[in-house]
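Bumping with the actual sequence this time:
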Amino acid sequence: MSAYLLRRLTALLPVLLGLSLLAFSLASLAPGDPAELLLRRQTGEPPSAADVTRLRSEMGLDRPFLVRYARWLGHAVRGDLGASHSSGASVSRTLVTNLPATVELAVASLLLGIVIALPLGVLAAVSRGGPLDHVSRIVSLVGTSIPGFLLGYMFILFFGVTLKLFPVAGTGGLSHLVLPAMTLALAEAAAMARMTRASMLDVLGEDYVRTARAKGASRRLVYVRHALRNALNPVVTLVGLRVGRLLGGAVIVEIVFARAGIGTVIVDAIHDRDYAMIQGFILFVGIVFVSANLLVDLAYASLDPRVRLGSSEERAAVAR
């Protein structure tokens, strides 16, 4: 397992390097001059060319692209993503400060989605063609069809305004987390339930499952020990791929429910054309996405040893 982890970490280095180059390039190619925008925001008037030239020199914007990228990357490796063009605050500190609220929302939504999806997908598979299967498919279709912002407003109207069960805005205790988490979790649960159902149906037709049934194993033992364990592999992969969507969905949900978090920060940065904050956010989200996929690879290797053993056997065969 250690060798497999080392190989995966080594393979991630070019990905992270390319990600950093992409983040820096997008911010550099965006329209508008950060120096001019900053001066205009400070004074409220169009700045002179001399002032813009002076500030560009102070910010290092007059240097070649590769020089600026190497300088920014060197600071980023040490955890310094620069200063915000609009507020002057540290980009790294701003993201880290607002991170807990977004992580809380994303983790709660993911866990709630898993709790809903796994039983729903398994029950739909074992009762294929029955009423429960049809209900599961309808719920999955609805969950994947309704946009997150619309679902959020529906929850606010029904659970917050009409029934007055939960607060509809702000960041506070557990009650403030319920509606945003439900909004994000429904779409995740819909996708995972469909994947769980399809994977379970494939596994239930395998020879080892029929053998276990022929030996007299109970239905519960067959479903849990033999079928579900092997059906989880595609679901685990899907969970990793949904992390990026979770972060993107969290941005919308935080706006709908007026929650503090990274989503609010990046929306303000886009509005203010704060390119330093935007490129820091792109790099940060990319690192989170890559890290999540690494964890998924490790979980997949734990569930299926062939994943971590196959590459070693292939290299040995090539060496021979």
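The tokens above came from a reply further down the thread. Confidence is low (pLDDT under 50) at residues 311-320.
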